[in-house]
Amino acid sequence: MQNYSTLPDNELLQLLKQSDQAAYSEIYHRHFYLTYIYAYKKLRDEEQVKDIVQDLFTSLWIKREFELPTTNLPGYLFTAVRNKLFDLFAHEQVKTKHLDSLQEYLSKSTSAPTDHRVREKELNAYIEKQIQALPPKMRRIFELSRKEQLSYQEIAQQLDISENNVSKQVNNALRILRTKLGFITIILMSVLR
Fold first, then answer.
1. Which residues, including other chains, have CB under 8 Å from residue 173's CB and lie 6 or more apart?
2. What percent of the chain has pLDDT over 90?
3. Which pTM was predicted?
């Protein structure tokens, strides 16, 4: 049996192109930490970084037969992570622009037609209902973060839990709410135009 840990990256790439799972595993273990640290320095969000790096290595396996480099695997991985970060930042900017546009519209339309005010109240009620549907601990942490504007550190001290746990709970709450509210937001954006 071959000792993969002694093989150079270019040989591991050749084995990976032949769908060698042990070579893939060695590449993963050899390069995961460095790509994770690189992405974390740029993003500072542990959960999102894990998702990005995991996605990177998943796509490495998927592209193994077609698009892999023959040399400089670290350069390829760092470029791929950087591109995934750029995609994430671009997506966040678009989302922010839409939310800013919506906020601006709502703040300028003090004399909005009655049906818009009714829709706004209904949307707020729906959002609140979805927040109330969150698991109790997650809901409490989310409300402290978003409604009371407490920092993760303040929430952790108040609830006697770790900041990491607070971060995970807030991220999970946001993920759940995005899923439930995504369709409603799209409809609202098209109605308000």
1. 131, 134, 138, 139, 141, 142
2. 31
3. 0.51
With beta carbons less than 8 A apart as the criterion, state whether 56 and 84 touch. yes
Domain boundary among 52, 73, 88: 88
Place of tokens 């592209």: 63
C-alpha 84/C-alpha 39 separation (Å) is 9
Task: State whether residue 134 is helix, strand or coil.
Answer: coil
The pLDDT of residue 96 is above 80 = no
Number of structural domains (the chain) is 2
Burial class (CB in 10 A: 0-12, 13-18, 19+), 106: middle
Residues 118 and 80 placed together within one structural domain of the fold: no
pLDDT at residue 8, as a whole number: 92
The answer to whether residue 150 sits within a structural domain is yes
Is the pLDDT assigned to residue 81 strictly greater than 90? yes
pLDDT of residue 193: 41
What is the rounded distance in angstroms from the CA atom of residue 16 to the CA atom of residue 165? 37
- SS3 call for 32: helix
Give dist(CA 119, CA 127) in Å, integer. 12
- Regarding whether 119 and 60 lie in a shared domain, the answer is no
What are the tens digits of pLDDT across the range 105-147?
A: 766 655 556 767 777 788 778 778 888 888 889 889 888 888 8
* Domain around 155: 113-192
Per DSSP, 71 falls in state S
